[in-house]
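Aim 2 progress update. The chain analyzed this quarter is reproduced below.
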Amino acid sequence: MQNPDPLDLPPSQPPSASGSIVDLHGIIRLVLDKGWLIVSCVVLAVIAAAVYVERAPRVYEALTTVQVEQEDAKVVKAEQVVSEDMRGLDVLNTVAQKMGNSHLLEQVLETNHLMPPNGSLVPNASKPLTAEETLTKFSRDVKATLRRNTRLIDITVRNTSPQLAAQLANSLVNIYLEDDAEAQHSTTQGANSFLQLEAARQEKKLRESEQALEDYRKKVGSISLEQNQDIITPKLQDLNKRLTQSKANLIEAQSLYQDSLKMPTNVDNLLAYTNVMQDPEVVQISTTVAKQVNDFVLIRQRYREKHPKYVLASAQLEALKQQLATTALKVRSRTQESLQIAYQNALSSELGLEGQLHNTETNALELGDVGVQFNVLSREVELDKKAFDDIVGRLGETKVEAQITPERVHAIQSALVPERPASPRVKLVFALALFGGVAVGLGLSFLMESINTTFRTVDEAEQHLGLPVLGTIPKLGKGAAESNKLVATEGSKSTGAEVFRTLRTTLSMLGPENDRKTYLFTSSLPDEGKTFTSLNYAVSLAQQDLRTVLVDVDLRRPSVEEFFTGKRNNLPGATDYFLGRKTLAEVCIQHKDVPKFCWVPSGSSVPNPVELLTKVDFQRFLNEALTQFDRVVIDTAPLLPVSDTLLVASKVQTVVLVVHGCKTARKVVERSLQLLNKANAPIGGIVLNLMPSRRFSGYYYSYYHGYGYGHYGYNEKESAKAPVDA
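Predicted structure tokens:
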């Protein structure tokens, strides 16, 4: 039996990439479902923050600011001999780094009598501290920061005592300024001594270079070399330029020639080349061939193959194709010959230019041997003279510089005693705790959501399985499932009744009426609600004035009889009919409250249900049932524990798989569908049962349409009186 056409009820289309990433309804549902976890994380984070704020020591921070001078306006610049340029950004960063130098910090501690002897116990310490440990701890409390786009450096010192923090900050700046002034004075004196020695050495070198130039002049005579260079140089430049162009032309000609040698002899591939395709003769013949092909198509439609006109047209077309092939090969040959000639001409031109360039370079070397040495000696004299003049000028500057001490760094703001502690920052700590708690709670929520492998929404089920969700049944409370109550018989305002009316309508849309008379309800595992779903669906069909029979074919754990009578009485039923003990009329039981509804219990127990279902003609049973009823609903055993259902699933017109929402794993449902497909069962879709019905949960059609069951069409007063489902 073919599967019913689901075109009237297709699975929902997968959302776009952006919609799948940002699912607002899903996020709201997740936050509401896992709200307890998020709140718990936030509470724990706030408690941890409160404990930290209470126990953390109060640390004060003193700030002092220094300015680094640019020194652009100074006339004397002798410090450039061995010291740095104070205008660069790297120098500003260097000064900032010097503020944290270990030698400077050690001086600050010793000046303020804070450097304890090795092994001594400092105040507020639990064990003796060495001098190195004290210095390391102090370095972590000192920070120098360069203000952006300024020449100001902020120095901050942290300490548990506000007075001591200000004292250490000011002491740090004062000691740095003293060390910097002493370093500048030493630098100036060293520069003066260095320049005196350098001036004597450079003077001696200048005399030696001048003497060497004079001796060479006497040896070769006073000649002018510029004229020869003016003639040779332009000629070399011109030859190099022409040779470069010739090499480029040779490469291009060689590439074109090699490409032409690779041209195929196949006409179809040869016509793809531009040189062949654009040849006037080829274009003319190709046009004629195309016209002849069109004419031949018309002739082939009118005449048979042996007709004279058909034979003549075919011969003409073949002749034209042969002519086109011959012409294309001729064009290929001409192209190769012309490109070969061009390549040989380019090669000859390059060889000639290389010979001219070699001869010219030889002449230039012969003429320039004398001039090269002369120019070298002349440049040495000029460089030595310039260097000597620079050193003499610097030497005069250092003599003036030695008399002054420029102030490169000076303090513009002294450190004041801080009034409030800088750490811990209470507002920041609690803000981070709040956001951290929310982040951890959301992260754990998303992690728990990601490892959940059940179906929680209609969209998830349809997108993952590729089947339509025929209906969703919310949790109706213990009263409906455990008190043997037919929810389909409740009033029009009942949520349960509306659920099965919707399921009835959905199944009626699966195809023509003749193809939707027999239904089989099953599930993957026990306790998923297949019996509850099938019998209420059957009652909803009977309410539509259709004669309906519900047959319990779950021969291992039958539930229909117990649902209607409250206990198992082993009434004659399906097994008795299959064994030929009873007729269909004898096993059918009329429901006392629903006129058009009958049900058939499972019947007497049998030792091997599989063997019985294998031997019975189940199709004959369905045909006989349809002669007495308009609709037949079958309740069967679960698919995975036993194989009973697979023996009869292909005989009905529609198979409905009931899935326990938010509980049954996806792989279990996939395995059940695989078994049904192998058994050629006409799967109509799935029903999500026992779905949570909380607001914004997204678990059933309230997520799909924005309305809950049993509320559409009611006014506010009626909805206020409507019963509330558990």
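The two ends are 41 Å apart (CA to CA). Confidence is low (pLDDT under 50) at residues 1-22, 72-84, 695-726. These observations will guide the mutagenesis experiments scheduled for the next reporting period.
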